[in-house]
Amino acid sequence: MDIHKTPYMGTIDWQAVMQGLAEIDFKAIFNFESKPEPCRPDYEAYCVSVGRYLIGLFNNFKNGGKT
After folding, report:
1. Global confidence as pTM
2. Structural domain range at position 55
3. CA angle 23–34–48, rounded 5-degree value
4. Would you give the distance in Å from CA 4 to the centre of its chain?
5. What average pLDDT does the chain have?
6. Residues near 15 by Cβ (< 8 Å), separated by ≥ 6?
7. 66 found inside a domain
């Protein structure tokens, strides 16, 4: 089950998700859950990196691109 897992730590096809969100013109907030200390700084850095990557995919799909 992928409940409460960070993107790419489960089985969800995130490229397909971002393409689908772009196709429906998704405009809501997309966020991640925080983790307990002491792993939080590393987890937050990972989330920033993955979030930027997913936004890049989303924007690429919005602009008619394919990956």
Report:
1. 0.79
2. 31-67
3. 55
4. 12
5. 87
6. 57, 67
7. yes
Q: Rounded distance, CA 39 to CA 43, Å?
A: 6
Query: Structure tokens of 47?
Result: 């989330």
Q: Is residue 14 part of a domain?
A: no
pLDDT at 5: 80
Q: Which residues of 48-64 are buried (b: 16+ CB within 10 A; e: fewer)?
A: eebeeebeebbebbeee
Q: What is the pLDDT of residue 14?
A: 95
Q: Please state the φ and ψ torsions of residue 39, each to the nearest 5 degrees.
A: -85, -5
For the chain, residues with pLDDT lower than 50 are none
Let me know if residue 65 belongs to a domain.
yes
DSSP 5: P
Torsion of CA 45, 46, 49, 51, to 10 degrees: -110
